[in-house]
TrEMBL record:
<feature type="binding site">
    <location>
        <begin position="286"/>
        <end position="288"/>
    </location>
    <ligand>
        <name>substrate</name>
    </ligand>
</feature>
<dbReference type="InterPro" id="IPR002638">
    <property type="entry name" value="Quinolinate_PRibosylTrfase_C"/>
</dbReference>
<feature type="domain" description="Quinolinate phosphoribosyl transferase N-terminal">
    <location>
        <begin position="54"/>
        <end position="139"/>
    </location>
</feature>
<feature type="binding site">
    <location>
        <position position="186"/>
    </location>
    <ligand>
        <name>substrate</name>
    </ligand>
</feature>
<dbReference type="Pfam" id="PF02749">
    <property type="entry name" value="QRPTase_N"/>
</dbReference>
<feature type="binding site">
    <location>
        <position position="239"/>
    </location>
    <ligand>
        <name>substrate</name>
    </ligand>
</feature>
<dbReference type="InterPro" id="IPR004393">
    <property type="entry name" value="NadC"/>
</dbReference>
<dbReference type="GO" id="GO:0004514">
    <property type="term" value="F:nicotinate-nucleotide diphosphorylase (carboxylating) activity"/>
</dbReference>
<dbReference type="Pfam" id="PF01729">
    <property type="entry name" value="QRPTase_C"/>
</dbReference>
<dbReference type="GO" id="GO:0005737">
    <property type="term" value="C:cytoplasm"/>
</dbReference>
<comment type="subunit">
    <text>Hexamer formed by 3 homodimers.</text>
</comment>
<comment type="function">
    <text>Involved in the catabolism of quinolinic acid (QA).</text>
</comment>
<dbReference type="InterPro" id="IPR013785">
    <property type="entry name" value="Aldolase_TIM"/>
</dbReference>
<dbReference type="InterPro" id="IPR036068">
    <property type="entry name" value="Nicotinate_pribotase-like_C"/>
</dbReference>
<dbReference type="InterPro" id="IPR022412">
    <property type="entry name" value="Quinolinate_PRibosylTrfase_N"/>
</dbReference>
<feature type="binding site">
    <location>
        <begin position="162"/>
        <end position="164"/>
    </location>
    <ligand>
        <name>substrate</name>
    </ligand>
</feature>
<keyword id="KW-0808">Transferase</keyword>
């Protein structure tokens, strides 16, 4: 530990008021998300139907046959994606009516009807798997996130996602994180400054790494000169993996310092150091964040905990279709 770092890690305690920093933009259903979803659905339709049709359905189901079914969870979880159902069905150009019985973010109980679909039976059968795949994935992420959020109840820290998302699915997955009670980290590289070790290695010229504190000051200066060109919030964040690096960057005044793969003792020391040197800086813990470790991490007094596991390790929630007997129109 640096010589002039706080000697008493318990100074970090959670009795102190957490520093306030701007948040990255929250992902909400908007035109961009709709475009992402529609592209994914078009790809899914192409995967299922190619240039042909659903031969089994065409062979066995009459053209005018109508049907009704409900989407039902087989396991407890958290709803995400219910409000996206109209966009999914629209891409099938299907003769299907829908009714959502639950809102995104609400708990799911096995056996409850969460969406009812009714209309042309051929359209229902052809669109069934695509609708379920999307909802199973998003509900799984929301459920995983809710578990992490509940594991740190009583602490002021918040749970954040990362950019470790499925290509093409980022906004959808980040929306699901929010429905589970988590917070969104930056959506893309355009969404703020996050100075990492590779930037430092390459930013100082050939063979000369850039000093972390200088990198922060450069980013802050860049931001101030282009404030009207940057989308809000324009956060300056830097990643460190040692306490001496943290000590060096705190006086430079970044909005957030991401402390990567710190032990619990190092996190406590980091919080005490932050409280002494620059209390306005938020600390974000990342690395080795699991459901069995996140509570202890939150107890160190950090403000933010980010984990790629919310998205890349979330299991799909088991959803199924319960059918009513088809009716002739």
């Amino acid at each position: 530990m640096p010589d002039d770092a706080p000697s008493n890690p318990t100074d970090a305690g959670e009795g102190k008021k957490p520093p306030v920093a701007p948040e990255y933009a929250a992902v909400v259903p908007d035109e961009t998300m709709e475009n992402d979803l529609r592209q994914l659905v078009r790809l899914a339709i192409a995967e299922d139907l190619g240039r042909s049709v659903d031969w089994t359905t065409v062979c066995l189901i009459g053209e005018e046959t109508c049907g009704q079914c409900s989407i039902v969870p087989r396991a407890p979880g958290v709803a995400a994606g219910m409000m996206l159902v109209p966009w999914i069905l629209d891409e099938f150009d299907a003769d299907i009516d829908h009714e959502c019985h639950i809102k995104d973010g609400q708990p799911l109980v096995p056996g409850q009807k969460i969406v009812t679909l009714s209309g042309n039976a051929r359209d229902l059968l052809t669109s069934e798997r695509v609708v379920l795949n999307i909802l199973c994935k998003l509900c799984g992420i929301a459920t995983k996130t809710r578990e992490f959020v509940q594991a740190i109840e009583g602490h002021h820290a918040k749970v954040y996602d990362t950019r470790k998302t499925t290509p093409g699915w980022r906004r959808l997955e980040k929306y699901a994180v929010r429905m589970g009670g988590g917070q969104n980290h930056r959506t893309g590289l355009f969404d703020g400054f996050l100075i990492k070790d590779n930037h430092l290695a390459l930013g100082g010229g050939p063979g000369t790494p850039l000093d972390p504190a200088d990198a922060v000051r450069k980013a802050l200066q860049w931001r101030s000169g282009r404030i009207n060109q940057l989308p809000a919030p324009d956060i300056v964040e830097i990643e460190v993996d040692r306490l001496d690096q943290l000590q060096a960057v705190l006086p430079a005044g970044p909005d957030i310092v991401l402390v990567d793969n710190f032990t619990l003792d190092q996190l406590r020391q980091a919080v005490a150091m932050r409280n002494q040197l620059n209390p306005s800086v938020q600390l974000e813990a990342s690395g080795n964040v699991r459901i069995d470790t996140i509570g202890e991490i939150a107890a160190t007094g950090v403000d933010r905990i980010s984990s790629g596991a919310l998205t890349h390790r979330a299991m799909w929630l088991d959803l199924g279709l319960d059918w009513l007997p088809p009716q002739a129109s």
